[in-house]
Amino acid sequence: MIRFTIFPRLLVLPGQKSNPYIQDFVSSLEQTGEAVVVNPPHKNPLFSLLPMKRWGDVFVFNWYENVPDYKYGPIQTVFALLLVLGAKMCGRKIVWVLHNKGPHRQEHVKQKRFLTRFIARHSDLILTHAREGIDLARRYDRRAEAKTCFLHHPTKNRLPKSRPTGPVMYDLLIWGQISRYKGVIEYVRYLRNNPCKGVRVCIVGACPSQSLAEEITRELTDTITFINRSPSFEELARYVEQSAFVLEPYKPESVLSSGTLMDSLSFGAKVIGPDTGSFKDYAQEKRLNVYTFRDYREIDEIVTRYRDCPVSWEGYRDFLEENSWPNFGRRVVELVKKC
C-alpha cells in the first residue's frame, strides 16, 4: 500500500464551494486499492503537514508555486521549501502537478518563479495535463523533461441520456468563476466595439471581484446576458444544452490546462478556447469538437462555420470514459511505482 500526502488538501466548510480537483484526486487514488492518503483536510493545508504522521511515501504538490499568496506568505514559503528538502532527505518521493504556465495572480513574482524552478528541480515526477507542459518543465529545469509525463486532465461522463432537442438561445456560453486572467472583460469590450457581429452570449458564474463585475456590467450590450452567480451542475447542463458553444476566452499567458474545459466536454459541449495548452491538444482530438482562436475575430468565424457541426456522442463518451478519474488514479500509481 502506497501512502500519499496530497497538497493542498483544504478543509471545506458547509456552504462553501471549492475546486473539486483535490478531492477527486484523493478518491481516485484510494479507489485503486493500492494507495491511501494520510493527510486529512485542514484549514491550513501546508502547516498541517508539520507532523510526520501526515507524511506519506509520496508527496503530491498542486499549485506549489502559489504559496506566496497565502496568509503569512513569506513564512509559508520558507516552510514549503524546507518541507520538500526534508521529505527528500527522508527518502520520500516528490510529485509536482504542473497546472499553469504561470500563477494567475501577478504578485510576489520573484518568489513564485523561485518556487517553480525549485520544485521542478527537486521533483521525482512531474505531471502535466497539456503536452506543452513538457517543454515548459524543461525551461524551468533542463533535467525536468525526462521526468515529466503528460496525463489528460481527468473528467467525468455527464452526457445526457438523449441528445438535446430544444432551441439554441445563445451562440456562446462563458461559465465558471469570473477572474481577470480568464479574459472575460476583454472579450465583452470587443463585442461592444463590434456590435454588427450580433453574437448572443451568456456569461454565468460568480465574480468575487466587485470592481470586475461592475466593469463587465458597464460594457454589456443587448446581446450579452450576465448572471453573477455560480450555477449548480444541473443548471449548467441546461445552459450547455441551450448554447451552440462554450467559450473560454482565457489569456494565453498563464493557462495551460483547464478544469472548465474538461467539465464542458463532460456535458458534450462544443468548446472554443485559446490556441494553447490543452485547448490546442484537443483541437487535434478527432473525437471532440474543440476549436481554437488566436484573436477574437476568429471566434466569430468559428461560430459561423461550425455552429451546425454535429457532436459525436460515441466519440465524446469514449474519450470521457478513457480519461475518467478512476483511470487517472491507476495511471498515477503506476507512474509512482516506476519513478
Describe the structure.
This is Exopolysaccharide biosynthesis protein. This protein folds into two domains: 168 residues, 3-Layer(aba) Sandwich (Rossmann fold); 151 residues, Glycogen Phosphorylase B (Rossmann fold, 3-Layer(aba) Sandwich), CATH 3.40.50. The model has no long low-confidence stretch (mean pLDDT 94). The protein has a six-stranded parallel sheet with strand order 2-1-3-4-5-6, with helices on both faces. The chain is globular. α1 crosses α12 and α5 packs parallel to α6. By secondary structure, it is α/β, with parallel strands linked by helices.
Sheet-strand content, in percent, reads: 15-25%
**Class based on secondary structure composition and strand pairing:** alpha/beta
Q: Could you give the order of the helices and strands?
A: EHEEHEHEHEEHEHEHEHEHEHHH
Number of individual domains: 2
What is the CATH homologous superfamily assignment of the largest domain? Glycogen Phosphorylase B
Overall radius of gyration:
21 Å
Q: From the coordinates shown, what is the CATH architecture of the largest domain? A: 3-Layer(aba) Sandwich
Number of strands: 12
CATH domain fold name of the largest domain: Rossmann fold
In angstroms, what separates the terminal alpha carbons? 16 Å
Detail the poorly predicted runs. none
* Helicity level: 25-40%
**Main β-sheet description:** 6 strands, parallel
- Could you state the oligomeric state of the chains shown? single chain
Shape: globular
Number of helices: 12
Average pLDDT works out at: 94
Strand order of the largest sheet: 2-1-3-4-5-6
